[in-house]
Amino acid sequence: MGSASLTFCPVSHEICQSSSIGAEVNFPDETDTLNLDALSENDKGSLRKVLFNNQVIVIRNRMDIDPATFLHLTEVFDTTFTYILSAGGKSVSNCNNIISAYRAGRIPRAPQVSIIGSGRFDDYEGIDKLEVTHLIQNGYIRPYRWHMDTPFSERLPGEVTILHGVQVPQMPDQKLKFPDGTEKKIAANAMAFSSGARAFELLSNEEKEFALNTTVTYAPHAYEYIRQCKATDNGLFISCIGRDTNRRPVRVVLG
Description:
disordered C terminus
């Protein structure tokens, strides 16, 4: 399906497997940049529709994109978008921020855009010396904690998160080990997404009833609250307690 300018197709079954999420967007122009000015209002409406119908969309082979373009692309999907950082302005320079702890950088002319990855880079986007890290142990890579990009404090979460692969590592596939001992090869720099709708389908009727009648209240900046706690191998749960910071506790309220 598509508009007069854009076309869309589902990602392959090999990629989406049983998640039922993911679609690719194909632009008609022959350039390898991302020109949002060339999009009509119908194009933008089609982009929004395909995102909300598929949860994840992929735009391939777009390089040399000005970081500020991602802010404008966010506005295409989220009409309530603001230029305030999700955790507030202090996170730009706060060395104790969890993004900073993993040596992630922020682009000076577009501080809403974070840089994550692994390696050392000189003179990148106005940053003289940039060093970012990612953990690999014994040939295996593990998920960071599963999370939503929201601070749960002061403002509502944004509707979209945009990721741009600038440099894909040229290295062998990495291995992801699951708690039951099974392993899966994944490409370096891979990003995993999970479908909440699919997870709900797999619940028993009793579990669905519990989920539909439960309200979860998170602590403000919950990611910071548990940053010192060890997560389980799949990144879904906290395997140790007592190392959380002195913040308002997370509560579960039955509704």
